[in-house]
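Sequence in, structure out.
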Amino acid sequence: MEKQYELISRLYPITSNQSSIFSNLELWIELFAEKQLCAYNPQTGEVTLIRKEQRKFDQLIKQILKPLNPKDLETTSTIKPMEILTQTLEHLEKLLIEQFPENSPIEFGSFGLEGLLPITEMHSVQQKHSDLIVQNVKEMFDELLEEDFDFPDWRN
């Protein structure tokens, strides 16, 4: 008899620290679970893991996200925190693939990030700098187009 699986999607906050640049980001994870490991909410139509399995899974995710030090995620530059987040997500992917391989009662499907990163001061300065360069190039081309050029006649 062929096993029947249900798709389960979960969202986990990256950090609970509201001053972090990642405070609006959530980790989105999809799993496939055998029907006997699933619980159904008829009011919302939501499919979840049964409590015992859900607790184990939640603990695993919290354990993986715990190394994201709130102090590291508070900087105004997103470069260092993005490196930290990328490393954590790579570690998470490896762990989920190992813990929930194909043909197991719970299989890892995929994961990603949901939410928006705020535009930091650094990004704002970079954008202004880029806009200034574009404006200067436009002005140079406008000046060139206004000049009268004497092009040689190449037909002769």
